[in-house]
Design brief:
With 222 residues, the protein is α+β, with helices and mostly antiparallel strands. Helix content is 22%, strand content 29%. Helix 1 (3-23) runs antiparallel to helix 3. The relative contact order is 0.24.
Length: 222
């Protein structure tokens, strides 16, 4: 087989596979989206529901997941209520660590994380891990969230990017020192920004172009 023809065919298959993957994405580039579920790995069950950290209940204004532009929404400075009941999640009392895994529903590409760090206890140090299968996790980043004052509190945005289905929050150094009124880790709300990906139509054109290139080289070889 002609070596050039073989390498072109490999490129074609890769491009078509990538196109199929991107077509499964539902979010507009730069859109804000929430996780579809969450599991408490350690430091729980705690107080409140972990689902209250992804359902927008505590936010002063909501968004449409996978539709609303992330940057535009964050620019409006949506605040999270300081009220605990049905709006926030706290780990077990008298603990300094906790771990939660967020399920994005499918393998997604994201490049920002918005965290409303609970104002009373919060997270002192956050180690982020990602996984595509929920079993093997890879370290993404370690961040130090802002210690919010005892009032309705804003989101803090971290520039972290990955392609994964699961994002694990390993929390430590809880509670934060100011005001630190409850000894545990706590989360207000979590959201992500969909990363820009090639348009499926463009990938389709790339595939068609490579098909033509393969045909052309085959004719020349003959």
């Amino acid at each position: 087989m002609n070596k050039k023809l073989s390498s072109t065919a490999v490129l074609l298959m890769g491009a078509l596979a990538l196109a199929g993957t991107v077509q499964n994405a539902t979010a507009a580039p730069g859109a804000i989206f929430s996780a579809t579920g969450a599991t408490i790995n350690a430091g729980g069950p705690g107080s409140g529901s972990i689902n209250d950290t992804l359902n927008q209940r505590g936010l002063s204004s909501g968004y449409t997941s996978d539709v609303t532009n992330f940057n535009a929404y964050i620019a409006t400075n949506p605040l999270h209520t300081l009220t605990f009941s049905t709006y926030e999640w706290f780990g077990n009392a008298s603990t300094t660590t906790a771990s939660v895994t967020y399920d994005l529903g499918s393998v997604r590409s994201f490049d920002r994380l918005a965290l409303w760090n609970e104002e009373s206890s919060g997270i002192g140090l956050l180690d982020l891990w990602t996984s595509v299968d929920g079993t093997t996790f890879t370290s993404l980043a370690s961040v130090t969230p802002f210690d919010n004052p005892l009032a309705d509190y804003p989101a803090e945005v971290f520039s972290v990017g990955a392609t994964a289905r699961y994002v694990r929050f390993d929390m430590s150094h809880c509670p934060q020192s100011n005001p630190g009124s409850y000894p545990s880790c706590a989360i207000g709300e979590v959201a992500f920004r969909s990363a820009d990906v090639p348009e499926p139509a463009m990938l389709g054109l790339l595939g068609l172009g490579l098909v033509g290139l393969v045909g052309s080289r085959r004719r020349k070889a003959v």
